[in-house]
């Protein structure tokens, strides 16, 4: 049986390349280890498939941001598949509700830093993950979403949190204005690696439990911005 410890989780943690002008940092990252085929709890449409004859386990990293440039809060994912020899076999990552293979566009192999850490690029402001920054200009409205379309979607409430996160028309309007006024930016398309602080790494259960509080704290910040 695989021993799950922080050393193992940190060994494969992804390096997320962020735009130099990106206004949001990763506020938390959660992990789930899969040793058999199972549906993801944090990305429910996704079945994480483990082929035991060649794959020892996969680690799902759920990446939490308090903000997306168009709405309140964001959850992205990286899946790292590891062979019985400890080598990274493949890497996948979320992209606007779907997922892509994270591979070098020339070689088709995963981009790795120090042998085991996948390197992925975050779309400026939106945080969808791609394997190469050259893919980003292919995304419709990638630049406009950070400027004139910033804040467009207000507060998004996932089904799993609808009893704990509440919104209304006034809050939606305030959130749209707040994000655009405070965080709107022009992407530089120059990137730096984001290095996660140790205390921001946790289990998915811990992150899930904290999400309503995280969102509601930001809602209070937004209300305070307009009420002062």
Give an overview of the whole structure.
Strand 3 (38-39) and strand 4 form a beta hairpin. This protein has helices at residues 6-11, 169-183, 204-227, and strands at residues 15-19, 28-34, 38-39, 47-48, 55-68, 71-83, 88-95, 98-101, 112-113, 117-122, 129-130, 154-155, 191-194, 201-203. It is an alpha+beta fold. Helix 2 packs across helix 3. Helix content is 20%, strand content 32%.
Keywords:
5-stranded mixed sheet; 7-stranded mixed sheet; 228 residues; 3 helices; alpha+beta
> Alpha-carbon distance between the termini?
56 Å
> How much β-strand is present in the residues?
25-35%
Could you give the order of the helices and strands? HEEEEEEEEEEEEHEEH
Q: Low-confidence runs (pLDDT<50, min 5 residues)?
A: none
The main pleated sheet reads as: 7 strands, mixed
Mean pLDDT: 94
Which SSEs are present, and which pair or pack?
Elements: H1 6-11, E1 15-19, E2 28-34, E3 38-39, E4 47-48, E5 55-68, E6 71-83, E7 88-95, E8 98-101, E9 112-113, E10 117-122, E11 129-130, E12 154-155, H2 169-183, E13 191-194, E14 201-203, H3 204-227
Parallel strand pairs: 1-10, 2-14, 6-12
Antiparallel strand pairs: 1-13, 2-5, 3-4, 5-6, 6-7, 7-8, 9-10, 10-11
